[in-house]
Design brief:
- With 132 residues, the chain is mainly alpha-helical.
- Helix content is 67%, strand content 3%.
- The protein has a two-stranded antiparallel ribbon.
- Strand 1 and strand 2 form a beta hairpin.
- Helix 3 packs antiparallel against helix 4.
């Protein structure tokens, strides 16, 4: 189980590094939504991302991650029951805490990655599904 959590966090860090704003780095996945032609003073916004996409993103994240957060919280709560021996309580606490940390980190990574590269509602949903 710890190997699975380690691999999942490692894969999420790939998306974190892709979302970093580093103008000197050619491997950054950052997408610019403003286009500034040389012959004009004004720039044009080229993004098609709307609040509808973010609402759909919220439903998608909620449907997937709320279950993990509830189960992780139940494990932490279950670890406080004194009817279990000390080793079982430690396993419940560590397991519940790790489940909550991975779920919250997945949400964080999804938000920052989509802020960095999503330019349309379709891209927002597609990126979210890929990260999940």
């Amino acid at each position: 189980a710890l190997a699975t959590i380690g691999v999942q966090i490692w894969m999420l860090f790939i998306f974190v590094t892709g979302a970093e704003i580093n103008l000197a780095d050619e491997t950054s996945a950052l997408v610019y939504t403003w286009k500034c032609p040389r012959d004009r003073v004004e720039c044009e916004f080229k993004g098609d991302l709307t609040s509808q996409g973010w609402i759909l993103f919220s439903f998608l994240m909620g449907a997937h991650l709320v279950k993990d957060l509830i189960n992780g919280s139940k494990l932490v709560k279950f670890s406080a029951k004194e009817r279990h021996d000390r080793d079982a309580r430690m396993r419940y606490f560590v397991g519940g805490t790790l489940l909550n940390v991975v779920a919250i980190f997945t949400l964080f990574v999804s938000v920052i990655y989509n802020f960095a590269i999503a330019t349309s509602n379709v891209e927002l949903v597609a990126n979210s599904v890929i990260i999940l």
